[in-house]
Amino acid sequence: MEDLKKTSLYDFHENNGAKFVPFAGYSMPVQYKNGVISEHLHTRSKAGFFDVSHMGQIKIWSKNNEKEKLIQELERLMPCDLYNLKENRQTYSLLTNSNGGVIDDLMIANKDLYFQLVVNASQKMNDYQHLKDNISYDFSIELEENKSLLAIQGPRSEDILASINSNIKTMKFMDSIDISLADIDCSISRSGYTGEDGFEISVHNKNVLQLVEILFKKSELLPIGLGARDSLRLEAGLCLYGNDLTSEITPVEANLNWVIHKRRRNQSSSNINFLGNTEILNQLEKGSFYLRIGLLPVEKAPMRTGCIIYLDNEGETEIGIVTSGGFSPTLNKPISMGRIQSEYLEDLEKVYVKVRDKILPAIITKLPFIKTKYKI
Amino acid sequence: MKYTEEHEWLKQEEDIVIVGITEHAAEQLGDLVFVELPNKDLEVKKDQEIVVIESVKAASDILAPLDGVITEINDKIVDDPSIVNSDPLGEGWFFKMKLNNPGELDKLLDKEEYDKLTS
Question: What is the CATH code of the structural domain delimited by B2-100?
């Protein structure tokens, strides 16, 4: 078996009573002593600390200072508007494939001299290769394995970071700036994947432990594992790559139409086509076969990934599949997301989902399941 | 108290046994969020899947430890599965059953053997 990689904070996790699981080639904390539910609720009420250093941090820049050309190259690979993405701002986007499916979802920031991407751990080598293969030799690309990534999420995040550097307070949702925390150089974005206000901090591996010790002087901060990270993102109605979003699922099917920037929807202009744009723009206009929806199980049994969704309680007409599901600690009941054939969706309120040997009702609901608290 | 390799405990009270899961199992499973118990009066065979429990992350089955009949179930843990985490050996019991052959209890693990299994 392949040896699992460790992040620079492995010993820190162990000292905090972490239980580890293999995740995308890394040994990562799934929970700490208090357990998933208490970690989840702590993040929603105060602030949680997440080591997400397994995620990929990719830097791309032009060797000849030809940023406009670089933008053109990148826009062929993702449907966002990099021309109008201001310096020190970031946006959520997708790497699409030629069929309109999704290679990965990511954050991309304009750092003036370069673009900074944060991609999923499971896809990072793949993404790196895809970017390398599809941008010309005038550009440099680096997978920054010498950097750690930390997330601080929850209502107390701003105060915790501002007590170290008050300039944090000037940041808005999706700002991404270079800033020092207690003399440690960091790149911080006001973003995250929990539905809470929060920050992601990129910092050199050699400084990460020192920074973590400073952060944990604030007693409101607790370390949070991957278990609660998953339930937090599910409540926030966010996609998990590999489940809700795959190379076979288009952004339109995943209900991510907003990610296809308006400027990129016009095929007749001088716009650069992005990979899969024919299929994606066609689906934007005519609708897609599947659509991602939220589900609230009527009874107590969680409806998990892979459960089949039916139109009827006899299980005769299969119309979709659960792509993410579990227990919502905030709502104290199970929640799920799934994909359903869109032709059935009009006026459809209730579906039936097979859980083990039972077919149980679930109500179709709007996403997210909780009110998000981004500082827009 | 007797134990199974499936991490259940059995406590004999006259002609019935109370069954639950061990502290070790409760800790390994993490926060429980769903429990489905068998019906009262159900006749069960050893190793039959009769309880479904789900933690935040995953579902598992609890097997009947021996042959017998279910005489009582703990509805409290269906309403609030977290009781299993907070008091697995007490309030967090699962069901009571009448054994077809109480002598079979002797074949199960004692505390020392179970502790060895989980150490």
Answer: 2.40.50.100
